[in-house]
What we know:
By secondary structure, the chain is an all-beta fold. 0% of the residues lie in helices and 66% in strands. The protein has strands at 7-20, 25-38, 44-56, 72-85, 91-104. It has a five-stranded mixed beta barrel with strand order 1-2-3-5-4. The termini are far apart. The model has no long low-confidence stretch (mean pLDDT 92).
Amino acid sequence: MEQLNKVELIGTVGSVYVKDFGRTKCVNFSVATNHAYKDREGCPVIETTWHRVIAWDSPDNADAFRISKGDQVHVIGRLRVQRYTGADGVERSMVEIVAKRMESL
């Protein structure tokens, strides 16, 4: 059976920082997506979700190195879970999106 791990987001960029590893570099940034609905009383509610994204230096991710806070982006990638032990000794995990293709809108 074929497996699929694919995520596609269109949202607003939050924080951005670039890491340089000598021969290659990556950009880490956050993307906010909104979900709008009405509650039981009919009042509009906007639910914002923040996503962590990492984009490695490649032709498909060239726009990633020119983005800034507030830009609209379209990201296609896969989910990856990172596990680590915090300073307090507690094991934690975080979900991030590894961008395969990314473009500014």
